Amino acid sequence: MKLTITNLSKQYRRDFFGLKDFSLELTPGITGLLGPNGAGKSTLMRILATINQPTSGTVLWNDVDIVKSPDTLRAVLGYLPQDFGIYPNLNAVEFLEYMAAIKGLDSKAARRRIEELLQVVNLVEAAKRPLGGYSGGMKQRVGIAQALLNDPQLLIVDEPTVGLDPEERVRFRNLLTDLSGDRIIILSTHIVSDVEAAASEIVMINRGRKLQHAAPEQLLTLLDGKVWQWVISADKLPELKREYLVSGVLRRENGMQVRVVSETAPAPQAECVAPSLEDVYLREVSQEGASK
Hints:
Layout: E1 3-13, E2 16-26, E3 29-34, H1 41-48, E4 56-61, E5 64-65, H2 70-74, E6 77-80, H3 92-102, H4 107-120, H5 136-147, E7 154-158, H6 166-179, E8 184-189, H7 192-198, E9 201-206, E10 209-214, H8 216-220, E11 227-232, H9 237-243, E12 245-252, E13 255-261, E14 271-272, H10 277-290
Parallel strand pairs: 3-8, 3-9, 6-7, 7-8
Antiparallel strand pairs: 1-2, 1-4, 4-5, 9-10, 11-13, 11-14, 12-13
Helix pairs in contact: 3-4
C-alpha cells in the first residue's frame, strides 16, 4: 500500500500557486500535514480525494494514476473535509445509512458496518438522537464514521479538531491512533499538538511547498542547541521580537519568560533548553516566509 505524489502543482492564477512542485511518498501509519492557514493543505487534500485535479504532476495510488483512474482510489478512500455538513434532523443511524447508500454499499452489509462504527466512535447511546443536538466533538465522530463506512485504506481528515474543546480534541486524536493500523491516515492541521500526539511522520508545508518531512524526533534534532529561555521585563519584549524569532512567552511574577530560536545565545543570562516541535515549526514557517 503506497501513495506517491510527484511534482504536484495547482495553479489558480498566473502568479498564484496553491501547490508548487510538491512531492511525497506515504505508507501505512499516520502522517501529520502541518502548516498555517492558507499553506496549501486543503488544496492537497482535495486533489488526493479526487475532488480537484492538479495543474501538473502526478498522484499514484499503488502505481495507478488517480487523475486518469480516480475510481481506483475512490473505492478505498475515506474523507472527512474541513467543512463537514450534516442533516440536523437525521439521527446518526439515518445519516450513516444515507451516506452508505451514496457510496453504493449493500444495505444489509451497511447496517452491520454502521453498528460496528457506532461502537468504534462511542456513539451507541446517542445513535437515535438528531444530529442537530450533537456537540462539535460528536459531529466530528459521526464524520469519521461516515469516512470509515467502506473500511478505507486511505483516510484523509482535514482540520478535524478545529472548534473542539480540549477533551474532545484528545478523544479524537486517540481515535485516529486506534484506527491507524494497516491504513494510510493523513491528518491535516495547523495545530502542532494534534500531530505531535498522533503522527508517526510529519510533513511541514507553507505557501504550497514542502518544508520538511521526517519523524517528530528527527525534526527536533534540527534545533538542538538553538533554543534559549530566560526572563525579561515586559517592556523589552517588542525589541526582542524584532531581533529574534520568539517561539513562546509566559508571564511570570518577575517578568516575561521568553523562548527564542537562535544559532547563538541571544543574552548572557539565556539558558539553552530542549527544542519543541512548535519551535521547529515556527522556525521553518518563518524561514519560508523570509525567503519570499
